[in-house]
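Please produce the structure of this protein holding pyridoxal-5'-phosphate.
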Amino acid sequence: MVKGQGVKLWDSTGKEYLDFVAGISTCCLGHADARLIDAVTAQLGRLHHVSNLYYTAEQGKLGEWLVQNSVADKAFFCNSGAEANEAAIKLARKHAHEKLGLDFPVIITAKASFHGRTLAAITATGQPKYQKGFEPLVPGFEYVEYNDAKALKKMVRRINALGRLRGLVPGKGRKGVAAIMMEALQGEGGIRPGTKEFFKVARELCDETGALLMIDEVQTGVGRTGKLWGYENLGGIEPDVFTSAKALGAGVPIGAMMCKERANVFKPGDHASTFGGNPLACAAGLAVAKAIEKDGLVTNAATRGEQIRGLLEKLQEKYPTLIQEVRGWGLINGVELTASSGLQAAKVVQACIDDGLLLVAAGTTVVRFVPPLIVTEAEVEEAVRRFGAALEKVSKA
Ligand code: PLP
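Below is the modeled complex.
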């Protein structure tokens, strides 16, 4: 790829694409957005990096915007989603040691989840294919079926009961649940929205045990789901900690870990990042915040999301033997291909690329649609038309 403008990209042969990948759910303002260019170039000419030894207004303002527009009280800045989750995992462990008196804190995550590629993040990721070859993994993680409230309850009770027993054995520390860490909607795992019932139980279990409810909003955050944060789709539950990256800088690398004051056990020096929250990245974050507010991008994500699901459902009616299910929130949607068709998502994605539409698979049988939040009605229509044509072509091949 050599050039972009809005929702379009061009490759080195001059071929044009409609970009419904957006740098994997990242370029929320599309490509070559004038506001982002102006903000970042002006910042580059003024002050781009001073390290975390000093306060900068840009970081302060972005932190302020995040806490004013979420349930969080504090924000820590880093450079990626994996780093944001790493910070959350460290916070949960320190919180468990200091506030819950646990010697061996356990973090429960979901099967089929994805939390990034650092060692702790691949361990948190409940998919062996990302862990294979990198053992030994980080201790202190257990995996539960996503959206299975009964299994989650059972797991929390089992770990905490075992912990109490272990505490009685001299020399063995107290084991217990430090946190439940989940995506609001599983992205890489196949675009599976979380259920209100599951997250209600997760919240209750955390309230009961003192564990932290941590929501990974790396893919779902910053307007993607038709709400500013994915957890807003979950019936009013509030996380103690949540993480963001991807769309937060619209493609300029930045990550953030946000938490409630009651979960904040970090003292200066406990955790840090040289680049994290530098003025350049925060200027990008502030440009995103401004564009979201001025252009109503969250509302656009909700409206265009309804449009895309409506059109994809019509395709499902047309091709019931090829499309199993259409699911998602706002502008993060997935088309699950039927098992009986034998179609692989990667094959359908390749046929779309050939026809000038960029899509990306989420697992082996789900095709993901995550366009920029600025996408128009006409672009959505055209994308679904190209997808339908590609699907038909592949199914006949
Ligand atoms: N968490 C979720 C839910 C993600 O989807 C991703 C990336 O796809 C990550 C974490 C990792 O983010 P990064 O690639 O910026 O480290």
